[in-house]
Amino acid sequence: MRTAVSTLKKKSFKSSLILLTLLTTFTVTADDEQTAKQWLERMIQAVNNLDYQGTFIYLHDNQLETMKIVHAVGNGQLQERLTSLNGAPREVIRDQHSVTCVMPESQEVSVDKRPLSKKFLALLPEDLRQLDAHYAFRWLGKGRVAGRHARVVAIIPKDGYRYGYRFFLDEETGLPLKSDLMNELGKAVEQTMFTHLEVGVAEIDPAQASLSGPQQRIELTAHADGLSHSLAPDEGGWEFRHLPDGFSLTTRNRLPNADGNQAIEQYVLSDGLASLSVFVESAGQGEAFLQGVSRLGAINAWGGKLDGYQVTVVGEVPAVTLLGIVDAMRLKR
Amino acid sequence: MTEQEQERLSALVDKELPHNEITGEIGKLLKNSPGHEVWSRYHLIGDAIRQEVGPVVDLQLADRISKRVQDEPVVLAPHAMQHPTAKWLKPTSGLAIAASVALLAVAVTPRLLNHEPANESLNVIATNQTTKQSTKERIYVADDGTRWELLSKPKVESRLNSYLVNHQEYAPAGNLKGIMPYATFVSYDGGQ
Lengths: 333, 192
Known about the structure:
The complex is a heterodimer. By secondary structure, chain A is an alpha+beta fold.
């Protein structure tokens, strides 16, 4: 009898211990999740609202590169410049009105002029809460990058249709000192890390590309009318059925092609964080289109013909997600 | 701790315990946290007597090390990320592996070099993606100045670049990292 009671006691003790452990674990997780989100919210504010400049290294596909970044928000006017410091000089300049890509080795400067406010699917801090269905938020402790103390947080995808992120955030400002993009297998596919960062300083001359020069800036290939048009929900020739979990159609646009005709339809699909664009155009004879798959860093691309149209899908998502999206496309009859 | 326990601990530190009792005593010590402190103190006393005390004496060193280890950022465990993936990737990858073996058997390699896979079923396209791993070396040899994998067509690259820049402006993650996503674009493939 005594043995039975003692066993019972032991059992109930055991189960309360398990319960206690579970509760503790849950509390810790919920706290971690909250802390992570608070830091990510701070990061979004910092990335967009602070003046900063610095040098960072960029690692992808075993390639190591150095880049310079300047981010200025003088009088609420955004000006950003990203310059490669090794290999062929390349530069991206972004302001309120346009994105300019300078690629001297291909003697090309492309300018995309559209008001930023219309283009951005801005991820606002409050949107983080809506990502819970497909991502977990984790607080991973402390670290140190570029001589600065950092808090480490991660956004972990709950399935393989999207990538994860790990950020080392500056304790002082919230800026991401190190960012790791993790693929569907949990491996870092793209990493950026500041080696030097100045906050509150942004030396930028918006009028001039730092790489410009007669031998480099040769041709300006801007879109003929430089404008894209948003399409109403019922416009556009394609619809999407049974998309990969969590993804939905967020934007439809009509873009000019090389001839300046509004001939390309763009569909942007997103789960709130991960996103990709589907470009549809008529498949002209002899024109160069992607056929098959390709990859650039963490960006995957697929191109092929669907119902006689050329379809190209580009996005920072696993290849399987691109293919799932293509599979969901239907030409409206 | 009782006086007797302290004496046995002292004997352990001074290596005066019979050989067959050492393991038991260490086991007891491991379970007894006040014992840790006494054990550290006895060592310190011994060291001081032998004049072997260094400039820094830190009785809490062990505690501080364990605390620091706890505070260290945890590396995202690949296993943890793999787990959810596995359940839906399995059918596709199984199919892909089987198909890629078949592909290799009939040596249809030109297919992998982006020659018109149009209208193929998505499964076959997915297979191309997987199979390219095995043909990677061959494909890279022909590359000249290309940055997009599997491509050596400047016009296609240029088009993809313009699509990519266009897409980046709509990417919510872009807001997360400012202009950083353009790093992909600005990057120069030094390996070419």
